[in-house]
Structures are given as structure tokens and as C-alpha cells.
């Protein structure tokens, strides 16, 4: 469903830009053709700039270091470059480029479950899959549906992925989750006490563990579930023993334009790792989360 929606959005944007160029040419106003087309195609950069302004204002007394203007600018540019690759190419057109693999020719090789976040699909992980699958690491990248439904609906999807890797490898997998996917995995863990024995490590990247300031503008059920202090988040935390969190690695950043203030992406008791000058989607492309994942997927 999401891939289809993003295909329509991407193609409609290109069509609108082309229509603008044709209109300008037909009216003899060629000087406005390219600037107008570029303004339409890169309007999202302005939305991103607003998000960065909001995150800077909302930092308050957060214990994470405050980002400098230069760091914010670098993170904004990184997100401007990353967003089209993810939302206009990988997810709408290439989400099935890399199929899941549940078996490895190497005995004792642990598997990996990749869980995307809000308004994303498995295409987010294409660069990861391109590196992991040639190394014969069993990987399953899930698609969480419905896109705007409750996070609780993700539990059976994650359960199926974990079960498939358990059956094929005989080992509990490592789970890696971006953004809202981190809450989906924690909700799966809370669904059954026996799940503590069924995962090796959870690595989250920019996940709103304590909610996000930006969720006040959301109207979807899953958006309501990431409002700071909401009942759903409090119940999830209450059901989570600190001993479990010792097996979490949480990557977060002071330039995350979606999950802020920064420390809302951390958890007490977890191994919290701060990444400088990198935004929300672009954080998936940083080497630190991938290297940490590779470390855990290759350890006993």
C-alpha cells in the first residue's frame, strides 16, 4: 500500500513540474520554467528547514549537547539528499529488490530482523541488505501495515519474522528498528514474557521511546501513541523490566528533525549512543548503527 502511495506521489510531482515547464514555454515565460519546476520538486527542503527550526527551539534543558548552527545545517543538507532517495526511489520502486533470506551456508549464523518506522517500508533497508546478504547473514525486512494504524498491529508481523528465523537458524535473532519501529519491537517484547528468550539484541535508531514533541501535530492512531507522556507509552515502559533494557542499544541525535528533544530517543538502562550532526532518515546511513549490528549478529 505505502509503495503504491509513494509511487503516485512521486510521479504526480514530476508530472506537475513538467506541466509547469510546458505552461511557461507555451506562454513565452521560459525564464520562470526551471525555477518554478525546482521550487515544486524541492519544496520538501523548506518543510525540513521548519522541522530543524522547531527541534532547535524545543531542545530546552535536554541533557544531550545542543547542536550548533553548522551542525544543524549539515544535518539539514544530509536529510535533503537522503529523503528523495528513500521516499521517491527505494520505497516506491525498489522495496522488493532484495528478498528475505532465512538460511545461511554457515552453521550457527544468527539472523537479523529489520523493522522500519512511520511512513516507511522495507525499501528503507536496501543499502543494509545489499551489504548483509552477500555475507550470508539471514535477514528479514518486514513491511508494517496498516501505515496509519495502531502500533499494536505490528506485533504479529514481527512475531512471524522472528519465528521464521528461529526455525531456520535455531538462534534468537538480532532486531534492528528505525524510528517508530523501535516501539513496535518493544511492544512485541511486552506481548509475551517468553520473548525475552527469543531475541539476542535490540538496536534502535532514532526511535521515539519517550515520544516526540512533533507528535502533537499527528492525527493517526500511531501518531497519538508517540505523544510524550501518553498512556500507551507509560504502559509500555511499566511492562518493561530494566534487565531487558540492558540488551538494547539506542542511537539518537541532537539533529533528529522528527524525534526531539534528543533524549526522548533514549531509555534508562540501555546503551545510549549519541550521533552528531545527522538527521532522522539519514541516521540509518551512518556507519555506527550498521557496525554495531554486525558486531552483535556475529557474536554468540
Task: Please give a structural write-up.
The two termini are 38 Å apart. It contains 11 helices and 6 strands. The protein is globular and about 70 Å long. It has a 6-stranded parallel β-sheet with strand order 2-1-3-4-5-6, sandwiched between helices. The mean pLDDT is 96. It has 300 residues and is α/β, with parallel strands linked by helices. Helix 1 runs antiparallel to helix 2 and helix 3 packs across helix 4. Helix 7 links the parallel strand 3 and strand 4. The chain has 2 domains: 92 residues, no CATH class; 186 residues, Alpha/Beta hydrolase fold, catalytic domain (Rossmann fold). The longest helix is centred in the N-terminal third of the chain and has 25 residues.
Notable features of this structure?
300 residues, alpha/beta, 9% strand, globular
Task: Walk me through the topology.
Elements: H1 2-26, H2 33-41, H3 43-57, H4 69-93, E1 112-115, H5 126-132, E2 139-141, H6 155-169, E3 174-178, H7 180-190, E4 201-205, H8 221-224, H9 231-238, H10 242-245, E5 248-253, E6 271-275, H11 287-297
Parallel strand pairs: 1-2, 1-3, 3-4, 4-5, 5-6
Amino acid at each position: 500500500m505505502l509503495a503504491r502511495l509513494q509511487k503516485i506521489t512521486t510521479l504526480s510531482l514530476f508530472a506537475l513540474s513538467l506541466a509547469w515547464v510546458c505552461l511557461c514555454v507555451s506562454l513565452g515565460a521560459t525564464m520562470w520554467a526551471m525555477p518554478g519546476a525546482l521550487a515544486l520538486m524541492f519544496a520538501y527542503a523548506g518543510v525540513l528547514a521548519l522541522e530543524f527550526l522547531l527541534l532547535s527551539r524545543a531542545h530546552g534543558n535536554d541533557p544531550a549537547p545542543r547542536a550548533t548552527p553548522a551542525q544543524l545545517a549539515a544535518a539539514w543538507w544530509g536529510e535533503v539528499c537522503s529523503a528523495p532517495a528513500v521516499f521517491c526511489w527505494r520505497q516506491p520502486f525498489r522495496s522488493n529488490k532484495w528478498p528475505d533470506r532465512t538460511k545461511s551456508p554457515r552453521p550457527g549464523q544468527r539472523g537479523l530482523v529489520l523493522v522500519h518506522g512511520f511512513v516507511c517500508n522495507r525499501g528503507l533497508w536496501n543499502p543494509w541488505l545489499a551489504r548483509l546478504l552477500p555475507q550470508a547473514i539471514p535477514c528479514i525486512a518486514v513491511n508494517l501495515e496498516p501505515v496509519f494504524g495502531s502500533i499494536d498491529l505490528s506485533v504479529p508481523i514481527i512475531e512471524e519474522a522472528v519465528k521464521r528465523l528461529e526455525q531456520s537458524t535455531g538462534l534468537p535473532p538480532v532486531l534492528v528498528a528505525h524510528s517508530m519501529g523501535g516501539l513496535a519491537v518493544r511492544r512485541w517484547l511486552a506481548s509475551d514474557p517468553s520473548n525475552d528468550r527469543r531475541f539476542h539484541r535490540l538496536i534502535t535508531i532514532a526511535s521515539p521511546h519517550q515520544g516526540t514533541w512533533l507528535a502533537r501535530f499527528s492525527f493517526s492512531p500511531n501518531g497519538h501513541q508517540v505523544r510524550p507522556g501518553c498512556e500507551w507509552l507509560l504502559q509500555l515502559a511499566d511492562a518493561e523490566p530494566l534487565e531487558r533494557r540492558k540488551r538494547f542499544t539506542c542511537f539518537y541525535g541532537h539533529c533528529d528533525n522528527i524525534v526531539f528533544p534528543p533524549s526522548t530517543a533514549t531509555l534508562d538502562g540501555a546503551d545510549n549512543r549519541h550521533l552528531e550532526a545527522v538527521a532522522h532518515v539519514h541516521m540509518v546511513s551512518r556507519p555506527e548503527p550498521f557496525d554495531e549490528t554486525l558486531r552483535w549478529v556475529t557474536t554468540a
